[in-house]
Amino acid sequence: QDYRDLIEHHYLIRAFTFFPLIIFAIAMHTDADYGPLHFLTGVAMNVSVLATCLTIPLAIPVMIRDAREARERGVDKAIPRRRLWKVAGLAFGASSIAYLTPFVRDVTDGSRNVTVTSCTNTVAQRQQRSGSRGRTRVINYEVYEITMQLADGSTRVQDMRLHPRDNESASSQAVYDVLYEACVTNPGTTGMTLEIMPHSWTILAARLD
Known about the structure:
Blueprint: H1 4-18, H2 21-30, H3 35-73, H4 83-109, E1 112-130, E2 137-150, E3 155-161, H5 170-185, E4 192-197, E5 202-208
Antiparallel strand pairs: 1-2, 1-4, 2-3, 4-5
Helix pairs in contact: 1-3, 2-3, 3-4
């Protein structure tokens, strides 16, 4: 009872710190591969991580005060110490700024159309790692690695799923269908016009030429 109020306050501050990650989970669940939804969820995920990391400097002084009070009461072991998550949080905050910057520039500059003169593909192997340290699970999967030749002479290479997701949004499915037609069904012979956000290279819409 002597330190229950300290524990409750400690975890209240911690819950406040990580609350923005709820937005991250919602955005990740509703994400799409293409279209406006992909752009919006990308912004939401990076903003939620940044918001969480910005609360850490605010939370640290309060948690230090709690720990000092716990020591004065002789119950300092009641307050768990997690210095690593503070450091990791600040690191994630810095990386989220880097990922968020192209989205911010896209909001400022808006979308533009690019002409793809031809598109080809190869089936490529990819790996995805999940799990904690010591229990890492590696998932091997295949994707289409599509290579788009743009009208300005530049080349854009990116991955595309072999099959669209079952819960793909209508706008994302429409983009996938056009990419599949130009890059997989008729590789090297079909052009298309893409509406993109130029800095994050989010494909908002696509049509065959």
